[in-house]
């Protein structure tokens, strides 16, 4: 995920009513950067927009959700995938998560709130990763600057010593 403050969310859901439900729930929770699609192929045509999160079903006509995730991860590995599916097979859910999905949620009455929690968890993980990267850069920069200062002090010491007779 690139943007933890205002993530670009793609929703791929072929059921127009469920698509509207999920989009409406997310918009009501202040997620405004949302694009919804009816098929994986439609999503792939817009993938160059670099979505942060893709919410999708497991089974579609044409490319299924797992294949879409594989294709996108080849060029955009930072994209988080959250599967929202009526497929209630635990083996499939485990397989999808092992292959790189952030989460797998079964469509039921609790799905919208689980989806919100999963999105917020993905954002939280991204913030932690970004903080850790920032801290690593800060530590490296600190030691580089410290090394430069030590070298300057050492050089000045040698320079001053050379002029003392």
Task: Quickly describe the structure.
The protein has five helices and five strands. It has helices spanning 16-28, 40-45, 65-75, 90-98, 111-162, and strands at residues 9-12, 34-37, 53-56, 80-85, 103-106.
Kindly describe this structure.
It is a single chain. The chain has helices spanning 16-28, 40-45, 65-75, 90-98, 111-162; strands at residues 9-12, 34-37, 53-56, 80-85, 103-106. The chain is of the alpha/beta class and 165 residues long. The chain has a five-stranded parallel sheet with strand order 2-1-3-4-5, with helices on both faces. The longest helix is centred in the C-terminal third of the chain and has 52 residues, at 111-162. It is elongated. It starts with 8 loop residues before the first strand and ends with a helix.
Keywords for this structure?
alpha/beta; 5 helices; 13% strand; 165 residues
- Compute the separation of the termini in Å: 63 Å
Helical fraction equals 55-70%
Structural class: alpha/beta
Question: What is the global morphology?
Answer: elongated
Mean pLDDT across all amino acids: 87
- Ranges where pLDDT stays below 50 over 5 or more residues in a row are none
Radius of gyration: 24 Å
Counting H and I runs of at least 4 residues, what is the number of helices? 5
Query: In what order do the strands lie side by side in the largest sheet?
Result: 2-1-3-4-5
How much of the sequence lies in strands comes to 5-15%
- Work out the number of β strands: 5
| Main sheet: strands, sense, barrel | 5 strands, parallel
Secondary-structure element sequence?
A: EHEHEHEHEH
